[in-house]
Write a structure and sequence with these properties.
This protein is mainly alpha-helical. 82% of the residues lie in helices and 0% in strands. It has one domain: Phosphate transport system protein phou homolog 2, domain 2 (Methane Monooxygenase Hydroxylase, Chain G, domain 1, Up-down Bundle), CATH 1.20.58. Helix 2 (48-56) packs antiparallel against helix 4 (83-113), helix 3 runs antiparallel to helix 4 (83-113) and helix 6 packs antiparallel against helix 8. The longest helix has 34 residues, at 12-45. It is found in: Cytoplasm. Keywords: Cytoplasm, Phosphate transport, Transport.
């Protein structure tokens, strides 16, 4: 929290506003992490009830995004933040958008649990679960970097997305092979492909959040630069 420099404001109320909004983002991050964990568990255990719970709980994340967005708007209107304070508020607004999208992707993964996959194709779900567990670890590291506003950690996490991309591409090749060998399986395999694609996108959105952390801490936009230039 030291990097946030919250304690330097003359207005105690401004400090409280910033601390409250950061706590709300951390709570939202916890909700998103729980949704992804439950979605992956539902796939691994073929737990349809848990999958339905993931889908029905998506509104919690949506509500959190709207509430935090309203708080940020109120802070900008009332406090007119500048420099680091403004970067922090903008980083939060962008982060909650990506967190909400990650929640949507968790719903797509839960949907595959509700598909009627045959015994043969259920083996694919274990590979999907492996990729998912790595993405979950990636998300947890991203949220940890955000909580500490640690730009060094954000750079390390950002670079590790390459591993997820390689694992995703390997899984896609495997799925393509299944479809070529048995065209009748295409509809079922497609649901697994969409879930794998959702996991790959979660990795991309975690990268976005890492870029927001770097933007806040260093005051430098790295959205269209290579990690070597961070």
């Amino acid at each position: 929290m030291d990097n946030l420099n919250i304690g330097r404001h003359i207005s105690g109320q401004f400090n409280e506003d910033l601390e409250r909004i950061i706590n709300h983002v951390m709570h939202m991050g916890g909700l998103v992490e729980k949704q992804l964990t439950d979605a992956l568990t539902s796939v691994c255990d073929a737990d349809e009830e848990l999958a339905k719970k993931v889908l029905s709980n998506d509104y919690l994340i949506n509500n959190a995004e709207v509430s935090i967005d309203d708080e940020c708007t109120r802070i900008i209107a009332k406090r007119q933040p500048a420099a680091g304070d403004l970067r922090l508020v903008m980083a939060i607004v962008k982060t909650i958008t990506d967190l909400e999208r990650i929640g949507d992707e968790a719903g797509k993964i839960a949907n595959v649990t509700l598909e009627s996959l045959s015994g043969k194709h259920k083996d694919l779900l274990s590979n999907l679960d492996n990729l998912g567990r790595h993405v979950l670890t990636f998300l947890q590291a991203t949220l940890d970097a955000f909580t500490r506003m640690d730009s060094d950690a954000a750079v390390i996490v950002h670079k590790s997305d390459d591993k997820i991309d390689r694992e995703y591409e390997a899984l896609m090749r495997q799925l393509m092979t299944y479809m070529m060998e048995d065209p009748r399986s295409i509809p079922q395999i497609m649901s697994v492909i969409w879930s794998a694609r959702a996991l790959e996108r979660i990795g991309d959105r975690c990268q976005n959040i890492c870029e927001y952390i770097i933007y806040f801490v260093k005051g430098k936009s790295v959205r269209h630069t290579t990690p070597e230039d961070f």
